[in-house]
Amino acid sequence: MKSFEKSLGKIKEIVEELEGNELSMDKSIEKFEEGTKLIKECYKKLEDVKKKVELIVVNSEDEISFEEFDPD
Known about the structure:
By secondary structure, the protein is of the alpha+beta class. It is built from two helices and two strands, in the order H-H-E-E. It has one domain. The chain has helices spanning 4-19, 25-52; strands at residues 54-58, 64-68. Helix 1 packs antiparallel against helix 2. The longest helix is centred in the middle third of the chain and has 28 residues, at 25-52.
């Protein structure tokens, strides 16, 4: 499995190739399918990381609780 960053880089390359209008229709579809697969993999990786990211909060009774990370 590729790293998230490598997958994003490959998606960028695919988009540039598709925007270049130099590929045949068959090759364009092939690249589109490859990009779609990579996007799904990246989305899954993000969801997995999101589930792992928790803040440890010690409340006033010295109990440890977990809260989901909220970037806002």
